[in-house]
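Record Arsenate reductase, 122 aa.
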Amino acid sequence: MEIWINPACSKCRSALSLLDAEGADYTVRRYLEDVPSEDEIRAVLDRLNLEPWDITRTQEAEAGELGLKEWARDASERGRWITALAEHPKLIQRPIITADDGTALVARSEDAVRQALTHNKG
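=>
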């Protein structure tokens, strides 16, 4: 499994601690440094079964500068949202865990991390 993290994020650090405590085998991606491409974001959205606006941190200053809260949340604007996430990775909700079974989830709670662990057992 892979976990997208920002090391400054307390929820990311908590998720890593839980994964370590459970002895999970995972890869860390510091997505602010190793920025996901638009195609990678699309693939993760498909695995999450979410839309880009569902994983956008609209309270970030960059979101305000872009005027994201005013953008339409529909198919016609989906590409614009994905481009914004690729160009401004700080806007991506975190942590995101992609499990080996093809699923993914935004792991902002201990329960979500535990759910990812169940999807990673083969």
